[in-house]
Design a protein that fits this description.
alpha/beta, Rossmann fold, 2 domains, four-stranded parallel beta sheet, 15 strands, 35% helix
């Protein structure tokens, strides 16, 4: 590829960690050094590093041997936002605009652009920085698979694998003890993780936020299986699932985060109610951060490398204000303004819903 006049590019990872972040950092850095001979500045702990000018230089050596590493060598933050910077003043949290500090850091390093690797919150912030004149390119990450403008995010397939493995393991105890086993998986307001891992793990019931469930249908489904001689059942429930007419269960609030709500607890609620109403012994397991940790699966290593490569191409071509994406089975890119603020959910016509129903899985609608 022909070299351009690019000299220095910044990179940061924002939001919750996710398998494949390091693979993207490596791909962006190596591609830009290889194609453009640019210097790469890695900002530490997400947007915090940009505001406070905390950084490391990323060269070929710094990003070698990180392809398989979980987490992020740059660190991350799910609260740091230059436009709404949260600071503790005594017992209070004060919010102020520190975007001028972020812009100052950007100019101080004489950067030509910034690559932001993150989820919807990080992309929204990237969009706001773009409006303030920062040339930005995004790369979509999250185990939730809920970023708009891309049909898949890196990290999702690894999390599906972890959750599927957990369901396989829960099957053995369910079968040996004739129990109902409930697995609560992450995913925030989208049911992708529960849907995919539930199908892969052969769950009898999958509960997702997009299809509010009826309690009666859950109990009847368990009783029906018992009548048919099935002595155990597996329920895969998304943390954002809720009964029809009811609310999602909020576990805690993280003030200063783009979305302060943290979900959790529906698995235990489902297990308690099922045991009480059906008389079948029931246990709940919350998979939690196990789904986010560890090494990316081979698919995510390839996918994260490809998205990182695409982001580097967007930088080289000067296509700022865009996010690398996956659409109709191909690498693509999309305008950041079409990504920000949205949440991609499982649609009612998603083919996987019909496929799951056809093999006897109930969504208890
Ligand atoms: O977005 C990824 C995710 O793991 C969600 O599935 C979960 O709801 C949330 O992050 C948890 O966030 P935190 O790391 O702030 O607890």
């Amino acid at each position: 590829m022909a070299k351009t006049s690019l000299k220095r590019i910044g990179v940061l990872t924002g939001g919750g960690d996710c398998p494949g972040l390091n693979a993207v950092i490596r791909a962006v850095t190596k591609t830009l050094i290889h194609d453009e001979e640019v210097e790469i500045v890695g900002f530490l702990d997400g947007y915090e590093g940009l505001v406070l000018n905390r950084y490391v230089r990323l060269d070929w050596k710094a990003v070698s041997n990180i392809l398989t590493l979980g987490g992020t060598i740059l660190g991350t933050s799910n609260t740091a936002n230059p436009m709404r910077w949260a600071e503790k003043k005594g017992t209070k949290i004060v919010i102020r605009d520190r975007s001028h500090d972020a812009l100052h850091t950007f100019r101080r390093h004489r950067l030509d652009g910034l690559v932001v690797i993150g989820g919807d919150g990080s992309m929204a912030i990237a969009g706001e920085l773009a409006e303030r004149g920062v040339p930005v390119v995004g790369v979509p990450k999250t185990i939730d698979n809920d970023v708009c403008g891309t049909e898949m995010t890196f990290g999702f397939q690894t999390a599906v694998g972890v959750a599927t493995d957990a369901l396989d393991r829960l099957h053995t105890t369910a079968s040996a003890h004739h129990r109902v086993m409930v697995a609560e998986v992450m995913g925030r307001y989208a049911g992708w993780l529960a849907l995919h891992s539930g199908i892969a793990g052969g769950a009898d019931i999958i509960l997702i936020p997009e299809i509010p469930f009826r309690w009666d249908a859950v109990f009847e489904s368990i009783r029906d299986r018992a009548r048919r001689g099935k002595r155990f059942s597996i329920i895969c429930v998304a943390e954002g699932a809720r009964p029809a007419g009811g609310d999602m269960i909020i576990q805690r609030r993280v003030e200063g985060s783009p979305d302060p709500i943290r979900l959790g607890g529906v698995g235990r609620l489902v297990a308690g109610s099922v045991e009480q109403k059906t008389g079948v012994e029931c246990r709940a397991t919350t998979l939690g951060y196990i789904q986010r940790g560890g090494t990316p699966c081979s698919f995510d290593r390839v996918f994260a490398t490809s998205l990182g490569h695409r982001a580097a191409q967007l930088v080289s071509e000067g296509h700022w204000g865009r996010m690398a994406s996956w659409q109709r089975g191909q690498l693509s890119d999309v305008a950041l303004e079409d990504v920000a603020g949205g949440c991609r959910k499982v649609g009612p016509a998603d083919p996987l819903l019909a496929i799951a129903r056809s093999v006897g899985t109930s969504f208890c609608e």
